[in-house]
Automatic annotation (TrEMBL):
It comes from Macrolepiota fuliginosa MF-IS2. The chain crosses the membrane at residues 46-64, 84-106, 113-132, 152-173, 185-205, 217-239, 287-311, 323-342, 354-372, 378-398, 410-431, 443-465. This is MFS general substrate transporter. Residues 16-30 have a biased composition (Basic and acidic residues). It is found in: Membrane. InterPro entries: MFS, MFS_trans_sf.
Length: 490
């Protein structure tokens, strides 16, 4: 009798266990479906408009070179001395100065309000550039353009990697650490594609030369500035503000996202950025290291954006061909950047892919600088972009992965992008008019930047690896970044 009862109990236990496993499997499948639906919904709401706006931020920033090729250089006498370099360079001081203050203010003003103001303001300035009549007036507009654009990119990086709200409502969303680079890359590549097409758009707009007695190069600024103004209006209606104000996520989706964040990093609750914290973060050498690496990536990017059509014209092509041939080098990065970003997220690793792309950029710059034939030098611009474009989201993802707490990420994202402005200053200052048509000094500085990038990346990698090793062995005084279970991404 007892043997029969025992057998029945064992069968009941086994049956109950099977039911439990089946229910657990069903719950996991439901969670997976909810995760996919939620992340797709968030991606579609956040990424497309942000990328479109950043596309025109880049276009409004770099269309100076195309306008110069289309006739502005002659009309405004920008070929005299260093006038073109001055007008180009003075965009960057205000662009750098307003990065961190902008990221701090957006929490008080609201991301939607802040972005809408910034986009409409720089759109108005870009539109007004079509009506300047001297290089001095052009320079003033560039100063204001830098000030208003400064607030956008770090806010967008922050919004993609974090979603912060006032402390009164504790809702906070962030992609998991190793999902970030694919999204940053997709966001950035949409922008790069648009900026790559910018010379073709500029050429098309320059064909309006004489319409309404307006020069072709002026139409470039007028039409592209008007497009930015339209996007600014769309931002008011579409940009998501803090999560407690969102109307596009269901309550269970918001709850699920909060759970993901705590599982990933454990800092779902936002913390206030105080003066003491700011001083502490600014003393963290790693934030400066990531910022300097970003300088090394932005230098070749700005050099290509501002000077590729001018360099091509120096190879002997006319204005039309110089503008049209400026676009193809932006094609290969669409493939290489997404490939490396996907691999980086898949293997949860950053540095090796930054090395590979840094070396590609280095080889491309060497070919552009010292290649004997024009065809070889032109091929160098393809290789430069294919390597350089992917390191930008790579470094942004690497730096964002290795900080904990929202307040530190606010400082980190602003600092990284702010220091990136130095790359723009170096690019516009070292590609001097007197060095045309080969621009060897500027290209030499760009080559040096890639060498420096590889050196600093190695230092950061070794440090992160050692800290992870010591933490696993229990030889550190406390957890890394003050977060138990947290390890640096290598």
């Amino acid at each position: 009798m007892k043997s029969s009862e025992t057998s029945l109990n064992q069968e009941s236990i086994q049956e109950f266990s099977k039911e439990g496993k089946s229910e657990s499997l069903e719950n996991e499948q439901q969670d997976h479906k909810l995760e996919r639906a939620t992340m797709l919904h968030v991606d579609l709401r956040i990424l497309p408009l942000l990328a479109a706006v950043y596309s025109f931020a880049l276009i409004d920033r770099i269309n100076l070179g195309a306008a110069h090729t289309a006739g502005m250089g002659v009309d405004l006498q920008l070929n005299v001395g260093a006038r073109f370099n001055i007008a180009t360079t003075l965009y960057f001081p205000t662009y750098m100065i307003f990065q961190l203050p902008g990221n701090i203010l957006l929490h008080k003003i609201g991301i939607r309000n802040w972005i809408t103001f910034a986009v409409i303001a720089w759109g108005a300035v870009a539109f007004g550039m079509g009506f300047v009549h001297s290089w001095q007036q052009l320079t003033v507009t560039r100063v204001f353009l830098g000030a208003f654009e400064a607030c956008y990119f770090p806010a967008m990086v922050l919004l993609i990697s974090t979603w912060q709200v006032p402390r009164i409502f504790v809702f906070f969303f962030r992609y998991k650490r190793h999902e970030v680079q694919k999204r940053l890359a997709a966001f950035y590549l949409i922008s790069i594609t648009a900026s790559g097409l910018s010379p073709i758009l500029a050429w098309a707009l320059s064909l309006l030369d004489g319409k309404r007695n307006i020069a072709g190069w002026r139409w470039i600024f007028i039409v592209e500035g008007a497009a930015t103004l339209l996007l600014g209006i769309l931002c008011w209606f579409w940009i998501v503000d803090f999560p407690h104000q969102n109307k596009f996520l269901a309550p269970e989706q918001t709850a699920f996202i909060l759970k993901r964040i705590d599982e990933d990093r454990g800092d779902a609750v936002p913390d206030e950025l105080t003066a003491a914290k700011l001083r502490k973060y600014l003393c963290d050498w790693k934030l400066w290291a990531y910022g300097i690496m970003f300088v090394c990536t932005t230098l070749p990017a700005y050099a290509q954006a501002y000077f590729i059509s001018i360099i091509l014209k120096g190879m002997g092509w006319d204005s039309t061909r110089s503008l049209l041939l400026s676009a193809p080098p932006y094609g290969p990065p669409i493939l290489t950047c997404m490939l490396f970003s996907w691999l980086s997220d898949k293997y949860k690793h950053r540095s090796s892919f930054i090395y590979v792309q840094g070396l590609m950029c280095l080889v491309g710059l060497v070919l552009t600088a010292f290649g004997g034939k024009h065809s070889v030098r032109y091929f160098g611009t393809f290789l430069t972009n294919a390597g350089n474009v992917g390191t930008i989201p790579g470094i942004l993802a690497w730096s964002s992965n290795n900080v904990v707490s929202h307040s530190k990420r606010t400082v980190q994202s602003a600092m990284t992008v702010m220091l990136g402005g130095i790359g723009g200053i170096l690019a516009t200052a070292t590609f001097r008019a007197q060095d045309a048509p080969r621009y060897l000094p500027g290209l030499a500085v760009s080559i040096g930047s890639q060498v420096l990038l590889l050196i600093i990346a190695t230092i950061v990698l070794v440090y992160n690896w050692r800290m992870n090793k010591l933490s696993r062995e229990g030889k550190l005084a406390g957890p890394i970044e003050g977060q138990p279970g947290f390890f640096y991404t290598l």
